[in-house]
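Section handout, structural biology tutorial.
Before the tutorial, make sure you can parse a SMILES string by hand: atoms, branches in parentheses, ring closures as digits. In the record below the ligand is zinc ion, and the chain has 289 residues. In the tutorial you will relate the predicted structure tokens back to the input. Do not try to memorize them.
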Amino acid sequence: MRCGIDIGGTTVKIGLVDNYEIKETIVIETKPETLFDDIFSKINEYKDKIDFIGFGIPGNVKNNYINRMPNIGLSDIDLNLLKKKYNISCDIKSSNDANCAALGEALFDNNNDSSYFITLGTGVGGGYVLDGKVIDGHHVACGEIGHIRIDEKHQYKCTCGLFGCLETVASATGIVRLFNEYYKDYNTNIPCDNVNAKVIFDYAKAGDELGLKVLEEVSEYLGKALAILAVTNDVKTFYIGGGVAECGEFLINRIKNYYLKYSFYACKNTEIKLAKLGNKAGMIGAAYL
Ligand SMILES: [Zn+2]
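Predicted structure of the complex:
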């Protein structure tokens, strides 16, 4: 049995995985003070069953050394030292959580070639998988596609400090930002209170003018970003996941249209698919790092 661990801001999901399927999931609360002691104590209970442990880290990690996890407020953690401390004999590997999800989706789809996974959530993240392996990159920044500078028009400030990043216009928060930008200029029935990306896209599906305007613009940014990735990585498949992707084929088809418009001729037939595993992708991918 392999163990894939997905560390999130509120919970840690520990999956016992066999043959690319989760056989058992253990969920523990994310308490920064005792986070890794909690995780390793739990793993220790299953020690005899497990022959590999993979960590999906919400942050920057290289060679099992976690530089920082900004959302959890922890930094400088050496998983190899913890492995010794807890007397774990099997291999431990780690990667960024979006990279793990990318690997999970590729494995689930039997993709032994190459793929890029893009997750559209509160932010925009991603991961690049080649020949069944996650590519972290020299600065462990491979897959940070949320920071492709794609928008020349609005130039919203990004959390990274730059302006016009993909994340500022194609994340759940970016979608609401565009909604507010165009609210006065387009007809709409979308209620202003508690508006979110799902509501905006649901209205778009029902033909709302403002909803469609936002959806088209978001799809164009994404199609353009994928066209950029296509000529640098030339993957077989793009997988689109995350909460925003719950909009489904309605969104994917539009992204495909814009991808065709902007992509290099040799990459026109790159597949663009909805991710299938939801929040299980991280655990499954981590188990096969
Ligand atoms: Zn950015």
